[in-house]
Design goal:
single chain, about 140 residues, mainly beta, Immunoglobulin-like, 5-stranded antiparallel sheet, 1 helix, 12 strands, globular
Length: about 140
């Protein structure tokens, strides 16, 4: 697999090469005494259905954004009585809401709890409620 490198020409003789940023996505089962199913994908990659049996189990993957910075991943989470679908990574050009929470290392941790889905704000060291479960 080829990896692209952005280039910025500072002067006639100086070119700076900037490698793409790698992002790490985690989807964690923090449900009380429940298993859950996770199905994540992008336009190009289907990461298949994962069964997170125990509290603390995680599904995780990493990637680099594409050249056009249009990379988008979404997930569907299902538990016995509810489900929810949402974007776990999306393009941000002006506002960096997601990247501000994932921190400088690009670690985005989504946590499924009994009342909904949370995103860990790593720099602030807290969790933010983002999505409600849709009751079946």
């Amino acid at each position: 697999m080829a990896t692209w490198v952005a280039e910025a020409q500072i002067s006639k003789d100086v070119v700076i090469r900037v490698p793409p940023v790698r992002y790490f996505i985690h989807v964690a089962n923090d449900l009380t005494n429940q298993d859950m199913f996770v199905h994540c994908q992008s336009k190009d990659d289907d990461l298949r259905i994962q069964h997170l049996v125990h509290r603390g189990d995680e599904f995780r993957w990493n990637f680099k954004e594409n050249f056009w910075k249009t990379t988008l991943f979404w997930c569907r989470l299902e538990k016995s009585d509810a489900h929810v679908s949402f974007n776990v990574f999306w393009p941000e050009s002006k506002h960096h809401w997601l990247r501000d929470r994932c921190g400088s290392q690009g670690v985005c941790i989504w946590s499924a709890k009994d009342d909904g889905i949370y995103l860990r704000n790593l720099p602030a060291q807290n969790e933010e409620f983002v999505h409600k479960w849709i009751i079946i």
